[in-house]
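Input for the complex:
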Amino acid sequence: MADLIVVLGWIGLYAPMALGAVGSVIGCSIAGQAAIGAMLDTETGHGRYIGVSAMPSSQVIFGIVVMFTLNRTVTLANGAGLFSVGVLAGLALMLSAIYQGQCCAAAIHAAKAKPEIFGLSVVPAAIVEGFAVFSFIFALVISGGIPQT
Amino acid sequence: MINRHFRYTLLMTSLPPQPVDLFSAKILPISRIQLDKRLSLLDADDAADLARIERLLHWSKMQEADDVNIVTHGHAEMALIRSEFLRQIVLWRLELRTLINALRRKHAGEILPLDQPYHGFGDRLQFIRRNWHKSDFGLGQSLPWLKQAWQLLSENKTLELDKLMLELNWKYYARLSLGHTFDFPAVVLYVLRWYVIDRWVSYDADRALLRFNELISAGMADVSLECEERP
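Predicted:
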């Protein structure tokens, strides 16, 4: 049981970065495909499509910061805490990146048909990003309460 | 699952937007050649399904046959479409065509022998056969457009009737496309709506040709009169 808790602790340590990266990969690929498709059909505005399609990449950066904040020697005392905070924060980051990618794809699709709504169409993606920021900040705050050894 | 819903993000965003109002369209948003180039992004199974749907629904892709053969072949082809959602779209359109065909035959004065089956698509064939004498085949409650279509047919307003049919198709496809943005059904619905726009735009061409012929006739009439007056 003790070994299992230590293993889970190590998983929790690495989970925010890994899950965040998975989410960013999926989110950026969805939005990136939309950007490339939109570029095939439009003469201008290519830069902003690429800019929007990169939005879901921030989750992996949040994940890296959370991972370094949680980084400590895993013991029986902190294994469960590291696992819980790491995995749950990672899941939140992963899902927010995927859904943000969907929002970005929809924004690109809509802005291609009606360029004047481009600014507004990005707002839902920014709102989704907000939830990733919440989970990032609270993971940082709560990691302070996990024993160092 | 995510991949399934977003398989054709690139394809769908590469297609020009279609108009909200069908009758405001003056030109096709994309030519067939360009559309086919973009559709080359479909995977083999989906491309086969789309070709099947086009063969079932569009006259230019159909082969001439009698009613029985069309229905038998249609059901066999429909069974090969993998998605139930897409099968329902095809069936809806074929049923619409069956009903309009029945209205036209009735308008032409055809008497339907009660001992023979009525060939067509959908669940309403019995209604058509039993209620042949009624202008809406007893389906007016569930399909209110039938009475309107019969009225237009009775008044020989064929263009208005075609516009009614195009509008029915357009609204049906628009409603279905709400839940589909970047998946295969979205691609199919885009192509089907492209056909509707193509049909409507070609009406404008027909009208222009008619007007052109009228002008030519008017111009030629003067010329011939002048020629006749010459000794």
